[in-house]
Amino acid sequence: MRIAIPKGRLQDETLALFAAAEYDVPSAADLATRRLVFSRGEIEWIFVKDCDVPVYVEHGAADAGVAGLDQLLEHGSTAYQPIQLPFGRCRMMLIGAPDAPELASLTVAKIATKYPRIARQYCDRRGLRADIIPLGGSVELAAVLNLTSHVIDLVETGTTIRIHNLVIEDLVAEISPRLIVGKDVYRTSPELVREMLARVGAAVERNQLTCAS
Q: Which domains are present in the chain?
């Protein structure tokens, strides 16, 4: 089985989860080599950008992986999402510039975001007209420098919002990482998938019990 691990903020906790599920995961020394593919027994671990995990799983280049709900929604992923993971949770928010009018009051709003698909769906659900401006870097800067009146982005601590006096206007989505599984492997190797889900699910449950105690 080939499992896609997201590089970046979810990587360490994802590896810790699989280690807790008694999988032989790549070590810190392995990762220091900057290799992107590691074989451990019957598992091949591949390390890809978080936004690419749904793509690899969707197209069968990986059998399973861990991806944030933000990436799954943005890609319109049809992979199965059997387990919601207990770490890396945050919120996707509509954020306004300090003196910006509310989004609903604008004839045509301008919204910067890393998630143009999600932003478009959000506006369409509310009957709002908006120009969506895709950005790949610090999205909040668009509102600070008046490139746009609003942005849609993930919020974890809210530090950037407070520093720049930005205003949270609405919740777009609650975001959490998911263990995802491709439809093909679900169909062709059901026993292998069930074993993985049982092991990871048990590790998640142990983690939740530990946190509660």
A: 2-88+176-212 (3.40.190.10), 90-174 (3.40.190.10)
